[in-house]
Specification:
Nucleotidyltransferase, domain 5
Length: 206
């Protein structure tokens, strides 16, 4: 006898950063998704990299204690031409992972391209395109979108993990990639479409 499919999750999504850290809490119940909060932690006023990392660590611990997420989904495999920037981002990733580990949370890592593909069907989408797609998927009002799109990036990471769980539909019709998900939602009629065609189709859907 197979284990019963767990259909309820509370996902903590993190877009790691050394100055602005995006965070989001996404509740999921079968195909229903509800953002509980998404915003950025701004640590630019703190003096020094280690003080900023410490603030992020304690903030995430408090966030986990407040919302009791069931897992952490985080963006990794960040690539930048500046090695120093990459090192700082890796430090921020490590702090977020350490905070989750300190609370015994399972951790799931996704590359930037994987996240964009999951949300828009195009691995080279802009932050604004990702935010626009999330606004449609999650029925968000424009005033709910924070000024800093690191917040919607964090929400995208959480939503990407939700799609990987295969929960939008029944166990017999799970959707573990954007094309399958979009076809089941009626956003596209054929899998033989380009990423831009799928993106335009989803943006036009009500």
């Amino acid at each position: 006898m197979q284990d019963q499919l767990i259909t309820s999750h509370r996902i903590l999504g993190i877009d790691p950063g050394t100055l602005l850290m995006g965070y989001a809490i996404l509740d999921t119940e079968r195909q229903k998704t509800t953002p509980l909060t998404f915003d950025v932690l701004d640590v630019r006023k703190l003096d020094g990299q280690y003080a900023r990392l410490q603030r992020e660590f304690f903030f995430l611990q408090d966030l986990i204690d407040q919302y009791h997420p069931t897992c952490l989904a985080i963006e990794t495999q960040f690539v930048d031409k500046n090695p120093q920037t990459m090192i700082k981002i890796v430090h921020a990733q490590g702090v977020a992972i350490a905070a989750a580990l300190s609370k015994d949370l399972p951790i799931y890592e996704y590359s930037p391209m994987k996240i964009k593909m999951a949300i828009t069907g195009n691995g080279h989408s802009t932050k604004q395109q990702v935010a626009d797609m999330l606004q449609r998927f999650l029925h968000l009002h424009p005033e709910q979108i924070p000024h800093h799109l690191d917040a919607t990036d964090a929400l995208a990471i959480a939503y990407c993990h939700f799609l990987q769980l295969g929960l939008p539909f029944s166990a017999e019709h799970t959707a573990k990639d954007w094309t399958t998900f979009a076809r089941q939602r009626g956003l596209v009629q054929s899998a033989h479409t380009t990423p831009n065609q799928r993106l335009r189709a989803a943006m036009a859907a009500k």
